[in-house]
Amino acid sequence: MTFRNVIVCRMVPGEESERVVADTFGYYDRTTRPQDLGVIGRTLLSFHDLYIHVIDRVADPAVTGQTRGLPAFQQIAEAIAPYVTPYPRYWKNPSDSVAKQFYHWAPAEPPAGTTTGPNRTIIVARIKPGAEPDVARIFGESDAGELPARLGVTGRWLYSIDDVYLHVLEQTDASFAAVRENHDTPAFAKIMEDLSPYISAYSPDTWRGPEDAVAKEFYRWRAED
Known about the structure:
- Pfam families: Cyclase_polyket.
- The strands form two sheets. Strands 4-1-3-2-10 form a five-stranded antiparallel β-sheet, with helices on one face. A five-stranded antiparallel β-sheet has the order 5-7-8-6-9.
- By secondary structure, it is of the alpha+beta class.
- The chain contains seven helices and ten strands.
- Strand 7 and strand 8 (164-171) form a beta hairpin.
């Protein structure tokens, strides 16, 4: 089973930041074989002033002891430093940029219709401090019903870091369109209402619908061996 780390930082918004950061990781991912350190995938995303770095590993580094993401960690940190800076107010060292997983759900059997790898969507919002148990409870109750199957959900992971909430959603080929189609159904409306005391839009001035909460992927790497 793949183990995932999610890193959250601030990033200067704009295409230049994304290009420099993507080019930096692209160079070192091609030349240093991160898979030798247990890293098998990497996805970089942006959302307003946020930088989201998803690292897929073959095992939990807390178990294997292999915590380094790339042999050239220091060179990468220096190259992206003008664009990427810590987010949490309590930041003291790089480990403080790792979001905390507080909920995970997957169906006992994969939904029918999965013909390729799942589509991954990362939804970003703000979370009320200390609300993780309530949010986990709400999703646990919903995931026990029929809504996940209707949306083709193959996995759900919830993370928090400071006041940032990340909802990593994996679905079948139906992708995020199923969320739009079911947005006004009673089951979807109920979970949104139940979450409203705890979860709010990251940028209320620009939020108009579910798509406005989705992070944009700007770099992806997968190990070939």
